[in-house]
Specification:
Number of helices: 29
Radius of gyration: 28 Å
Strand content: 5-15%
Bound molecules: acetoacetyl-coenzyme A, 1,4-dihydronicotinamide adenine dinucleotide
Oligomer: single chain
Helix content: 40-55%
CATH superfamily of the largest domain: 2-enoyl-CoA Hydratase, Chain A, domain 1
Distance between the termini: 36 Å
CATH class of the largest domain: Alpha Beta
Largest sheet: 8 strands, mixed
Structural class: alpha/beta
Length: 702
């Protein structure tokens, strides 16, 4: 029966089997059942020892995260107390772990007297990734078992580790090749028969003694994690709690862990990170492309164009074990593209993150060619040539002629109409956008763009491919900039207007960085290059509506030949060989000149007005995108922004953040900004509707 703990007998050993699909989550009901089962087996004189194991795919994925949004029900079973009872049991308790032991599931195992795990099992304490900490003794038992430094790595790192690593570190005792449960039963029986003292993690002192003389461990760790943990509360709370293993008696440290856990659980950050967890799983659910939609098998691929993106896409495919044929327009371009790929791999090897043998194997999967005939066998072809419609159409017409009939033809275009590209082929149902983010071999996001004729099978194929590549595919519709860049334009436009009104790039960049973004818009622009969007703006100049406000500042910067880091200067200047942006009075003068030219009297722009001015229009654009049906749900937009643009995970993405701010506040501010600054800032109808109804984007469903 789901949501229960079955009690099975193997002679004098009682087997407690967690059974709560999909991950045997420790819901309140499961915790209560665990407590009751322990009382039952302890009272039963015919039981000499206990084995805890899991039904189905895994041992236990931890607490049931879905229950975290509401306060615990009255009289709810208290997991730390139950685990203390498990540990205190005079009868040996052995954990038989298969699949996964995560979070509360791992903590249950830590409370047992022995932990055995099957090959392929992954174990760890990922609570930090949900904005909380291991709240059932994990911050106390783990350091006692494996040492303070290793425990900090496991708890703050939040990763699931392979069984071999868990055994090496000491939080699993043995990797069992044969029948896991039989072995666990035998070990439990032996422990009972031997009468030897049971190994209780909370009572181990050796590792704590070793760390006691080195209190600097904690400050050093805080320094080491500062960059990755910037803005997050939970990693620091984890370190603080592990530190109490040295400074407080066990019962008090446990109490403190509980208090901190409850504070974190109730925080906006944890709500945001839990939202992120579920959002990343929701993206795979596409109403008219059900799970059983047949995806075409992808065993080989082709990439057309081996520039910045094509090279990275080829690497991604090769990294996932797929053979890739890469086509370029000339031998010179091909050599240059492949040389960059080789250089990128070599850099990873020199950092010790890839072996030379693995680099060679990956490179061997990439076959260069100048001949379209070599692309005939590929299951998918990804086009990444220059962003020019006639060229894309020509490439697709040729791909259509040479690729096998069931091959998927994908474009990496970032701005062009996927439907117009599809029209150049005889198989528009097999044409789709796969919008990778730069650098394509690193960034996890893929916006998979559904054209008017793209078939469910084609969508299923690219969504599955995203997974194969270790990426997150989010399905979006066709529009200028798709979802991410379209929202980015809305944000960036306002940043430029703020420059005209009185701000300077360093101020805006600082406020945006402090908000939690990896960098502000101007540092980002210097990194990616100013010339790309300049070319697009020039191409669009003739059709730009005259009544809409347009800032010429970026064009003026480009006219000075300042394209960003690659030319040694952009919005900032750079010393040779350095990536450190240095504010430049030349830019300040240029901006002041534009303000004067436009008749705008410069004023002091306060830090406080920058976040609403930049991010509310971004959210507003997200609302339009939802209304237009270009994203399936608000949480999909959040995934795009967290994985494509580094929107801070502890804010849950822009749409979740907007719900926290309150759509009423955002709507009212947008209305005021619209009155002050005009058309670009008109509130989206959906924003108004939801604000009027007192709802959030989370409540919205098309
Ligand atoms: N609670 C509730 N639902 C969960 C869950 C959990 N702990 N873990 C996974 N799920 C759900 C997922 O949302 C998903 O649901 P849908 O199918 O409806 O989308 C389903 O279970 C399967 O999950 P995955 O697709 O992620 O399955 P997987 O096999 O790829 O991975 C896993 C399994 C490694 C357990 C992964 O789901 C995972 O990392 N889960 C979270 C683990 C975690 O963070 N545990 C700590 C919880 S907090 C805690 O335990 C606090 C404490 O101290 C008491
Ligand atoms: P790039 O200029 O670095 O590379 C384009 C490559 O295509 C060049 O190597 C060129 O030789 C090759 N090419 C041109 N014509 C060709 C042809 N007829 N046949 C074969 N190869 C040909 O450009 P980049 O940045 O890689 O962009 C490629 C595509 O990816 C564009 O559509 C762009 O909009 C899109 N994109 C770019 C991103 C970026 O950050 N650079 C991000 C996401 C998408």
């Amino acid at each position: 029966m789901p949501g229960s703990i079955a009690l099975e007998r193997r002679g004098d050993v009682a087997l407690l089997r967690l059974d709560n699909p999909p991950v045997n989550g420790l819901s309140f009901a499961m915790r209560a059942a665990l407590g009751e089962r322990m009382v039952e087996v302890l009272a039963d004189d015919s039981v000499a020892a206990v084995v805890v194991c899991g039904a189905g795919r895994m041992f236990c994925g931890g607490a049931d995260i879905r229950e975290f949004s509401a306060p615990p029900p009255p009289g709810a079973a208290h997991l730390p107390a139950i685990l203390d009872d498990v540990e205190a049991s005079p009868k040996p308790v052995v954990a038989a772990i298969h699949g996964v032991a995560a979070g509360g599931g791992m903590e249950l195992a830590l409370a047992c007297h022995m932990r055995l795990a099957a090959p392929g099992t992954r174990l760890g304490l990922p609570e930090v990734t949900l904005g909380i900490l291991p709240g059932a003794g994990g911050t106390q038992r783990m350091p006692r078992l494996i040492g303070v430094e290793a425990a900090l790595d496991v708890i703050v790192g939040g990763k699931l580790h392979p069984v071999e690593k868990a055994v090496a570190l000491g939080f699993a005792d043995e990797r069992v090749e044969g029948d896991l449960e039989e072995t666990a039963v035998a070990r439990a029986r032996d422990l009972a028969a031997s009468g030897a003292p049971l190994r209780r993690a909370s009572q181990l002192t050796e590792h704590l003694e070793a760390a006691r003389g080195r209190p600097e461990i904690f400050d050093e760790f805080r320094k080491k994690m500062a960059k990755r943990a910037r803005g997050f509360d939970a990693p620091y709370a984890c370190v603080d709690c592990v530190e109490t293993a040295l400074t407080l008696p066990y019962p008090e440290a446990l109490k403190n862990e509980r208090t901190v856990f409850q504070r974190l659980r109730a925080s906006d950050q944890s709500a945001a990170q839990r939202h992120a967890f579920f959002a990343e799983r929701e993206v795979a659910k596409i109403p008219d492309v059900p799970k059983d939609t047949p995806a075409r098998p992808v065993a080989s691929a082709a990439v057309v164009g081996c520039g910045t993106m094509g090279g990275g896409i080829a690497m991604s495919l090769a990294n996932a074990g797929l053979p890739v044929t890469v086509l370029e327009s000339s031998q010179e371009a091909l050599d240059r593209g492949l040389a960059t790929v080789r250089k990128n791999y070599a850099a990873t090897v020199s950092k010790g993150r890839l072996s030379q043998a693995e680099m060679d194997a990956r490179l061997a999967r990439i076959t260069p060619t100048l001949d379209y005939a070599d692309l005939g066998a590929a299951d998918i072809a990804v086009e990444a040539v220059f962003e020019e419609m006639p060229l894309k159409k020509e490439v697709f017409a040729r791909l259509d002629r040479v690729c096998k009939p069931d091959a998927v033809l994908a474009t990496n275009t970032s701005t062009l109409d996927v439907d117009a590209i599809a029209a150049a082929t005889s198989r528009p149902e097999q044409v789709v956008g796969t919008h990778f983010f730069s650098p394509a071999n690193v960034m996890r996001l893929m916006e998979n763009v559904r054209g008017a004729h793209t078939s469910p099978e084609t969508i299923a194929t690219v969504m599955k491919l995203s997974k194969t590549l270790g990426k997150i595919g989010v399905l979006v519709g066709v529009c200028d900039g798709f979802v991410g860049n379209r929202m980015l334009y809305a944000y960036r436009r306002q940043a430029d207007f703020l420059l005209e009104e009185g701000a300077l790039p360093p101020q805006i960049d600082r406020v945006v960085y402090d908000f939690g973004m990896p960098m502000g818009p101007y540092q980002m622009n210097d990194l990616t290059g100013l010339d790309v969007s300049w070319r697009v703006r020039k191409a669009q100049a003739a059709t730009r509506p005259a009544h809409l406000r347009y800032s010429p500042i970026a064009d003026r910067v480009c006219e000075m030949g300042r394209y960003g880091q690659k030319t040694g200067a952009g919005w900032y200047r750079y010393e040779p060989g350095s990536r450190t942006p240095i504010p430049d009075p030349v830019i300040d003068q240029l901006i002041a000149g534009v303000s004067a030219e436009l008749g705008i009297e410069r004023r002091a722009v306060s830090d406080d007005e920058i976040v609403p001015r930049l991010f509310y229009p971004l959210v507003n654009e997200g609302a339009k995108i939802l209304d237009e049906g270009l994203a399936l749900r608000a949480s999909d937009i959040d995934v795009i922004w967290m994985h494509g643009y580094g929107f801070p995970r502890y804010r849950g993405g822009p749409m979740f953040w907007a719900d926290l701010v309150g759509l009423r506040t955002i709507y009212d501010t947008m209305s005021r900004l619209h009155d002050e600054h005009g058309e670009w800032l008109e509130p989206a109808p959906l924003l108004k509707r939801l604000a009027d109804q007192g709802k959030g984007f989370a409540d919205w469903a098309k």
